[in-house]
Amino acid sequence: MLLRKYASLFGIGSAKIDLVLPKTVFSPGELLNGHFLLEGGIVKQKLKRIECDLIMVDKHSQERTIDSTTIYKREELKPDETNKLNFVYRLPKTLKANEKGVRYLFKTKLTFDKGVESLDEDWISIVC
């Protein structure tokens, strides 16, 4: 059991997060209704927070954070447990359509009291 605990501290068998969206193509100002899927690892872990950033990537692969959301979670995720947490977000009306190399993604990070963070990236397209 001790070996499992130390392995999870280095990211082996630790809990994971996945942002699940109903689709990948959206319009500026559209309301997104999705959820975060939290999947427990091989040991119990204390959650600290979930951070989700909307990032714009230009044609030179330069990233710019458009918006950021943080959810503080002080609970334990048991081994092999699966939880859903609703994600409701309105895209800014000022987003440009995917043209001339501009792309968007949500970068999600699950942080624990101890251990390696779980990361997820979800690319979306913006059309007018």
Protein described:
By secondary structure, this protein is mainly beta. It is built from 1 helix and 9 strands. Strands 2, 4, 5, 6, 8 and 9 form a 6-stranded mixed β-sheet that branches. A 3-stranded antiparallel β-sheet has the order 1-3-7, with no helix packed on it. The N and C termini lie far apart (53 Å). The N terminus is likely disordered.
In short:
By secondary structure, the protein is mostly beta strands.
What secondary-structure arrangement, pairings included, does this model have?
Layout: H1 2-9, E1 16-20, E2 25-26, E3 31-39, E4 45-57, E5 63-72, E6 76-77, E7 82-90, E8 103-112, E9 118-126
Parallel strand pairs: 2-9
Antiparallel strand pairs: 1-3, 3-7, 4-5, 4-6, 4-8, 8-9
What's the domain count?
1
As for the CATH topology, it is Immunoglobulin-like
Tell me the name of the CATH class: Mainly Beta
Query: Which outline best applies?
Result: elongated
Residue fraction in strands? over 45%
Number of helices: 1
Strand and helix order: HEEEEEEEEE
Quick tags:
single chain; 128 residues; mainly beta; Immunoglobulin-like; 6-stranded mixed β-sheet; 3-stranded antiparallel β-sheet; 9 strands; 54% strand; disordered N terminus
